Amino acid sequence: MTSTVRLNVMQPYLGKEEVAAVTAVLESGWVAQGPRVAEFESRFAALVDTAYAVALSNCTSALHLSLVVAGVKAGDDVVVPSFSFVATANAPTYVGAHPVFADVEPLTGNVTAATIEASLTPATTAVIAVDQGGIPADIASIKALCAPRGITVIEDAACGAGSRLGNRPVGVDADVAVWSFHPRKLLTTGEGGMLTTNRMDWADRARTLREHAMSVSAAQRHESVLAEAEQYLEVGFNYRMTDMQAAVGIVQLRRLGEMVTRRRVLAGMYQDALAGVAGIRCVADPVGGRANFQSFWIEVLPGFRFSREELLAELAVAGISARRGIMAAHRQPAHAWREHADLTVTERLTDSTLILPLFHQMTADDLFRVVDVIRGT
User: Fold this and answer.
1) What is the pTM of this model?
2) One domain, residues 242 and 265
3) Which of 186, 204, 244, 255 lies 20 to 30 Å from 352, alpha-carbon distance?
4) Interatomic CA distance for residues 333 and 29, integer angstroms
5) Number of folded domains that form the chain
6) Strand boundaries in the chain, DSSP class E
7) Residue 195, strand partner residues
8) What would the pLDDT profile of 215-238 be if each residue is shown by its tens digit?
9) What is the CATH number of the domain that holds 187?
10) Are residues 58 and 153 located together in one domain of the fold?
11) From CA 216, how far away is CA 32, in angstroms rounded?
């Protein structure tokens, strides 16, 4: 008999250590941006092998600031994948720039140097490449294309913590990378984001901009009995992370290795169990890459007995919460009016993929409950 217990598509991995860390912050009396944020930044920079990390309120604010510090301005073009959460396309509009949509390659759902080159214009000043679902994009080849042209490469590693290409963590080859700590990501702080870069000037400006562009930081003001009068050096933003969030993040960093290991085991079980199912293709590591499998998606091909929508409905009847694959931003009302090049692969993947349940606490029984529906057994 089919189980009626709901199986969610994602579940954050949190425990007593996170509770204790937040309690300690509450008892300290400093709950806003402070020493735990600074510690989280330092530890995260070390994790991703980058000189500077700037904690922010979410990944979208990190995307925004990455464009600001890179000098992207009104009227510029920024090449982005349409096959991504809409924030990737929204961010350029925050600085008055125009998102120009590039197609993706079918196996990973990521942009490549070739798909980006087809979308470059004389006004292109930046490219945003996404590690879609935690699958690492080939940033080195994208950088080789863009650097001689003076184009900034921003890596949207929102899903990428713990993913690697070769022996290097994702984010390390980009001019600037951004990260998400939303509950659907491996590392979560509830909400939260990070900007990483090897440029001190960009990191310093991002830190200033996140606090309304104050000349004196909140930490410096707190340390002084008589604080100096602050000035507001430019129009800034309120993009700060709290010490409560950072305390959770510090604990989550210690969990990352085991989370990646467990998710890769589960992804391997899906791949093995579905390998013989005609009409189903599973996402997999790229050549030379090691994904964290933040999301595990399958493509429903024409030979399968159900359409993507029909399979979603079958899973729902069994109490299994799957999700349609990544959106195509160029189809959304906010961006549908923009002209774009051919996006055949993007549209195919958007229409034919779905995300299956995958989370740290998932059991083999949970996984084979999903597999049985897909197999029809």
Assistant:
1) 0.95
2) no
3) 186
4) 45
5) 2
6) 52-56, 77-81, 98-102, 124-130, 152-156, 164-165, 168-169, 176-180, 193-197, 280-282, 289-290, 296-300, 323-324, 353-356
7) 54, 178
8) 776 666 666 655 667 788 899 999
9) 3.40.640.10
10) yes
11) 16
Domain boundary among 203, 238, 253: 253
Strand order in the sheet with 323-324: 280-282, 296-300, 353-356, 323-324
Q: What is the pLDDT of residues 56-81, one digit of tens each?
A: 999 999 999 999 999 999 999 999 99
Q: What is the DSSP letter of 47?
A: H
Q: Is residue 73 annotated as part of the catalytic site, yes or no?
A: no
Which of these is catalytic: 16, 73, 143, 185? Answer: 185
Q: Identify whether the C-beta of residue 100 lies closer than 8 Å to the C-beta of residue 118.
A: no
Claim to verify: residue 83 and residue 213 sit in the same structural domain: yes
Q: What is the DSSP string of 189-231?
A: -SS-EEEEES-HHHHHHHHHHHBTTBSS-HHHHHH-SSPPPP-
- Give the angle subtended at the CA of 344 by the CAs of 340 and 349, to the nearest 5°: 120
Residue at 10 is within a domain: no
**Claim to verify: residue 92 and residue 195 sit in the same structural domain:** yes
